[in-house]
Amino acid sequence: MRGALYLTGALLAAGLGLPAGAAVAADAQAGRAKALQCQACHGMDGKSRLPEAPHLAGQVESYLVKALKAYKTGARKDEQMNLMAKPLSEADIANLAAFYSSLKP
C-alpha cells in the first residue's frame, strides 16, 4: 500500500496517468514541523491549554482538512484561525491534518 502511495505521488509529480486534482498522501512529519505555529493555542501534543482553542489530537483527518480549508477561504469565521490558515498550501493543510489526527487524544 505504501509503495502505491509513493508511486501515485511520483506519477502526479511527473504529470502522468492521474486525473487533475488527484491527491498525494499527506506527510505527518511535515505536519509536525508546520504545527510549530499552532502550538501556542493547540499545544504541540494537540491538547489545548486554552479554553477557547479546541483539542486537535486524534481528531478525524478529513474533518481537520475541511475545517482548515474553511478557515482559509473565510467560510468559517474566527479572526485568529482565518489569519493562520490563509497562507497554508493544500499540502500544508493535508500534512497538519495527518499530524494532528495521528496523535492520541
Automatic annotation (TrEMBL):
A GO MF term: metal ion binding
InterPro entries for this protein: Cyt_c-like_dom, Cyt_c-like_dom_sf, Cytochrome_c_Oxidase_Subunit
Protein name stated in the entry: Cytochrome c553
Keyword terms: Electron transport, Heme, Iron, Metal-binding, Signal, Transport
Domain of life: Bacteria
Signal peptide: 1-22
Domain Cytochrome c residues, every copy: 26-104
Record's keyword annotation contains Metal-binding: yes
Annotated TM spans: none
Gene3D superfamilies according to UniProt: Cytochrome c-like domain (1.10.760.10)
Electron transport among keywords: yes
Pfam families: Cytochrom_C
